Structures are given as C-alpha cells and as structure tokens.
Amino acid sequence: MLLLSLPLWLTASLWGLVSGSALVLGALIAYYKTVPVKVVGAIMAFGSGVLISALSFELMDEAYHNGGFAAAATGFVAGAVIYSVANWLLSRRGARHRKRSGGKQPTEKDSPGSGTAIALGALIDGIPESIAIGVTMIEGGKVSMAAVIAIFLSNIPESLSSTAGMKKSGRSAKYIFGIWLAIAVISALSALAGYSIFSHFTPEVIAATIAVAAGGILAMISSTMIPEAYEEEHDFVGIIIVMGFLAAFLLSKSTG
Q1: SS3 letters for 177-205?
Q2: Could you give phi then psi for residue 149, rounded to 5 degrees?
Q3: Residue 94 CA from chain centroid, whole number
Q4: Measured between alpha carbons, how far is 48 from 53 in angstroms, rounded to an integer?
Q5: Is residue 134 within 8 Å of 196, Cβ to Cβ?
Q6: What's the rounded Cα separation, in Å, for the pair 132 and 128?
Q7: CB neighbourhood size of 199 (10 A)
Q8: Which of 17, 64, 124, 206 could form a disulfide with 188 if both were Cys (CB 3.0 to 4.6 A apart)?
Q9: Element (H, E) at 85
Q10: Contact of 240 with 233, CB cutoff 8 Å
Q11: pLDDT over 70 percentage in the chain
C-alpha cells in the first residue's frame, strides 16, 4: 500500500532495488555456504527458464502491443547486438567465465584487469532487466509484478554462481560484495531512468526500448547462464529450464 502513495519515479526505483537485492542475497549464500556445483547448475537452469518466460510474455508482448512488430523486432535485435558486442569486448579482457561457479575465472595475477572486466560484465548483465522494470511502468503506471518476481528469482542464481567462481579465484569479500551492492543500487537507478527518461517518448520508442531490454536479456541468458547450467547439470538442464519457464508463465497469468 505504501508504494501506491509514492511518486511513480520513486516506485520504479524501489522495484529496481528489490530485484537487484537478489544479487546480494545470492552472493551471501555462495560466499558463506558451499553449494554443490550440480545444485548451482540446476538453479541456473531454472532461472534461465524464468527469464525466458518473462521476456516472452511480459516484455516482448508489451512491446508488440504498444509499438507493433517493427518496433518490437528492431529493438529486440538491437538489444541482442548491443549486449553481444559488449560481452565480446569484456570476454577478451577476462570476463568470459564470470557466471561460472567452478575454477575457470582468472585471477588478477593470471589476467591483469580481469577484475574490472568481471565487474563491468556483471553490470551489463543486470542493466537491461532493471531498465525494463521502469519502462513497463510507463503504460498505466503499474509495475509488472511477474517481471519483477521473475528477475528477482533469476538474479539469485546469477550472483550465486558468479560469486562461487570469484571466491575460488581468490577475490576478496570486499570486491565480491562491493560489486553486487553497487549493481543493486545501479539497478534502482536504471529502473528510475527507464521510467523517467522514456516516459516522454512515443509509444513506438517505448516499445523498442522494452524490446531492446528483452533482446539483451535473451542474449545474456544464451551466452552466460545456459552454458553454466549445461556444464554442471547437462543431463536434465532442458527439463529444469522448462519448469522455470512454466513457473514464470503461470505467475504471469495469475498476476495479469
């Protein structure tokens, strides 16, 4: 009820912070408790399915209805391209395995500058989701609870797996939690920007922006989350992804 009485720009930022706080939660679990790699893989697979469902039935569906196929398709492809290029550049600087829970993440000694690359990689993974939360509030002033819950649920395995890998590569607690706390705050600011900036644009631009976020999220899932899930839980990863997709689909319909 409190959120209903707040200005919409502040409400958007708070929902962004809520979804981003799951990154800190996942980091706490991974840092203080050893989670079996198969469990990490299974959680990552479930989170992938949740996000795929959310971007399909929440983001892309809204983009299509608001701006039509051309705006939605253009934004969707643009989001995938933008994310993939940024991910490629950061991967070359040591961030390729930032989502991996095993011992594949490089140390700073092995790859100077990889710590910064990993931090930036984690940042570009989370920004599209947060912007999407803010942009979806423009039409009607109401947040998509299905999208917020889906992003929250997917953020936990993302940071859980990444933190496990960071810890194994010898990165400090200050570095690890500094990253996730910073990204949680940036998530709030990104949701605020998504609402405040794009609320002044035409429905077609808003639709394209939502689709850009969706394209970036799908590219992120394909290049970072699913590979980790498959490597650790390859026998049943398909089934687990389907279950995550179904859970988010039911959530979308029940909150819609």
Answers
A1: HHHHHHHHHHHHHHHHHHHHHHCCCCHHH
A2: -65, -40
A3: 20
A4: 9
A5: yes
A6: 6
A7: 17
A8: 17
A9: helix 61-90
A10: yes
A11: 84
Which structure tokens are listed for 105? 């993440």
Read off the pLDDT of residues 67-91 as tens digits, 9 standing for 90 and up.
899 999 999 999 999 988 988 887 7
Q: What are the phi and psi torsion angles at 199 (to 5°)?
A: -70, -15
Residue 105 φ then ψ, to 5°: -70, 135
Greatest extent of the chain over all pairs of C-alpha atoms, in Å = 52
83's tokens: 């994310």
Q: How many CA atoms lie within 13 A of 25 on its CB side?
A: 12
Supply the pTM of this predicted model.
Answer: 0.81
Per-residue pLDDT of 121-168, as tens digits, reads 777 777 888 888 888 888 767 887 888 888 888 788 778 877 877 787
pLDDT for residue 6? 76
Q: Are residues 227 and 219 in contact, defined by beta-carbon separation less than 8 angstroms?
A: no
CA 122 vs CA 87, 208, 231: distances in Å: 10, 23, 20
At 249, which amino acid appears?
Answer: F
- The C-alpha atoms of residue 52 and residue 54 are separated, in whole angstroms, by 6
